[in-house]
């Protein structure tokens, strides 16, 4: 999504979460809808396609370890189950492995989220650079 020159974020690269990919997984797991079926409905009126989708990929086992460390409103007992996390990861993988079937995801870069945070951030930065999405830090300073 290249920034709209009329936007309050003029000159900045907008960053959004993985909404579309998450919805494909949610409706498949919770409502038995195929990702293609959900995709067709959700993208009917979609006018923006991201310049890049970053997927922080993690094994279901590692996701469960992280879930165990959460508390309060961040806990999701119906979702933080090994079987559910495995299904979600499978849907993420199948959708991102078929870019022609899900073009509204834009280009996708999967990052191994089991790495340390610095490596994850460095990998994301490299992906942004590769796709020409780094902010113009020199132009911003003037």
What report would you give on this structure?
By secondary structure, the chain is mainly alpha-helical. It has six helices and two strands; from the N terminus they run H-H-E-H-H-E-H-H. The protein has helices at residues 19-31, 35-42, 60-68, 82-96, 117-130, 137-141; strands at 53-57, 108-112. The chain has a two-stranded parallel sheet with strand order 1-2. Helix 3 (60-68) crosses helix 4 (82-96). The radius of gyration is 17 Å and the shape is globular.
- The portion of residues assigned to helices is 40-55%
Largest sheet: 2 strands, parallel
- Say how many strands there are: 2
Average residue pLDDT? 85
The separation of the N and C termini measures 24 Å
Rg on CA atoms, Å: 17 Å
Order of helices and strands: HHEHHEHH
- Taking strands numbered 1, 2, ... along the chain, how are they ordered across the largest sheet? 1-2
Envelope shape: globular
Strand content: 5-15%
What structural class do helix, strand and pairing data support?
mainly alpha
Counting H and I runs of at least 4 residues, what is the number of helices?
6
Sequence stretches where pLDDT stays below 50 over 5 or more residues: none
Compose a concise summary of this entry:
The protein is mainly alpha-helical.
Structural key phrases:
single chain, 142 residues, mainly alpha, two-stranded parallel sheet, 6 helices, 45% helix, globular
SSE blueprint:
Blueprint: H1 19-31, H2 35-42, E1 53-57, H3 60-68, H4 82-96, E2 108-112, H5 117-130, H6 137-141
Parallel strand pairs: 1-2
């Amino acid at each position: 999504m290249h920034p709209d020159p009329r936007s309050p974020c003029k000159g900045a690269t907008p960053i959004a979460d993985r909404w579309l990919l998450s919805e494909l997984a949610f409706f498949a797991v919770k409502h038995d809808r195929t990702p293609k079926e959900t995709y067709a409905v959700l993208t009917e009126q979609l006018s923006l396609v991201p310049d890049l989708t970053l997927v922080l990929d993690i094994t279901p086992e590692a996701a469960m370890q992280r879930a165990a460390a959460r508390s309060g409103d961040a806990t999701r007992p119906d979702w933080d189950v090994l079987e559910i996390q495995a299904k979600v990861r499978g849907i993420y993988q199948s959708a991102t492995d078929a870019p022609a079937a899900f073009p509204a995801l834009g280009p996708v870069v999967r990052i191994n989220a089991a790495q340390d945070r610095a490596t994850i951030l460095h990998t994301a930065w490299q992906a942004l650079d590769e796709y020409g999405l780094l902010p113009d830090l020199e132009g911003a300073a003037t």
